[in-house]
Amino acid sequence: MRKEGSIDYQLLICIFVLISIGTVMIYSASSVMAQENYGDSTYFLKKQLFRVGLGIVVLLIMSKIDYRAFRSIAIAGILLSIFLLAYIIIANDIPVIKGSQRWFRISRIPFQLQPSELAKFALIYYFADALDRKRAKRNSFVDYLLPLLIIWTVISFLILKEPDFGTTIVISIIVLIMFFAGKVKISHLAFIVMCAVLLSFIIVSNKTYVQQRIINYLQPDYNIYQGNYQLTQSKLSLGSGGILGEGLGKSNEKLMYLPEPFTDFIFSILGEELGFVGIFMVFSLFLFLLWKGISIAKGAPDFFGYLLAVGITFSIIVVAFINAGVVCGLLPTTGIPMPFISYGGTNLLFNMIGIGMLLNISSKRIKGWKSIQYSRNRFENSRVEKKEIGSS
């Protein structure tokens, strides 16, 4: 067993391997487009290397800062997220990219910022804090859950206005997982799930672009040269990889056939060039990350750390499996990137912040599961004592 305060090298190596694979694949998938559009095959690679370097610095800093240090300002993250999400909707200077207003640029920062990524991380941190602080009231729907549901609804509404249905679904799944991990009453959780499903149907019925994506998903052979073109090319890319792949750098689909070959659909290029072996390796790394995240959560020294570790872990894993499902044609297109693999800045930055916090939580574990079990037992005992005092 590692000593308290030591670095979790297994988690660190897992992340660095994923980032290394991602960096190599970004160059391979983007080099043709970069040469064609910018006259430099390493154009996108150089930008991503800067982001990776920044991410590593942020990860190392966050791994040294106590994960509880920001609890007093957790609500500030929520308020900032709401402000930025509202700003990109109402501001006139926000560019519409692929039909959505999801990004804005800050001067001298070499990548666009995506407020929904900040909102996702802020929700995880604030919900972990609130579920821990108010856990003595967990039987009260109004006191324990209603304020969180209001925040969740406001942020989801703003993200939907961009529009970004995919990120809204991801955030909703993470919130429900955290509610379950936070021991929310089953009756309350069931009610929330039913409301979420009902709202999803209402949203789908009123969002034409979501309806079209679902139609394309249900009828993959329909309209293959327009709505289903990207998915069709993705399947061709994956299918041509076989067991060992065509070889690194030898993808045909990246030659202007597959749109977004180094962003949302980079997993297709990975499958084409590295085959089933490459896909299996990446999936194994994400499953290992899931196992490590759950282990860290179980060994957290307090209930807040437990919930935070659960939220961070599943914020990465849920996105990874949704992206893989989309690329394989198992899920409708969402526009969600593959964590640590896809080209991008904001997503990588907040994932690295999350991993840094996971490393910090891991460094404080002392007796594995017993520490959080003790915290839970202490909570249960305090409830019993309150009942006894109230009845005496």
Describe the structure.
The chain has helices at 9-38, 43-64, 74-90, 115-133, 141-160, 165-181, 186-206, 208-218, 229-239, 266-298, 303-327, 346-363, 369-391. The model is unreliable at 378-392 (pLDDT under 50). The chain has one domain (9-391). By secondary structure, it is an all-alpha fold. The longest helix is centred in the last third of the chain and has 33 residues, at 266-298. It is built from 13 helices and no strands. Helix content is 68%, strand content 0%.
Secondary structure blueprint with pairings:
Blueprint: H1 9-38, H2 43-64, H3 74-90, H4 115-133, H5 141-160, H6 165-181, H7 186-206, H8 208-218, H9 229-239, H10 266-298, H11 303-327, H12 346-363, H13 369-391
Helix pairs in contact: 1-2, 1-10, 2-12, 3-4, 3-5, 4-5, 4-6, 4-11, 5-6, 6-7, 6-11, 9-10, 10-11, 11-12
Mean pLDDT reading? 86
Beta-sheet strand percentage?
under 5%
Percent helix, as a range, is: 55-70%
* Alpha-carbon distance between the two ends: 46 Å
Rg over C-alpha atoms, rounded to the nearest angstrom: 22 Å
Q: Topology as H/E string?
A: HHHHHHHHHHHHH
Count of DSSP H/I helices: 13
List low-pLDDT spans: 378-392
Number of strands: 0
Put the structure in a nutshell.
It contains 13 helices and no strands. With 392 residues, the protein is an all-alpha fold. It has one domain.
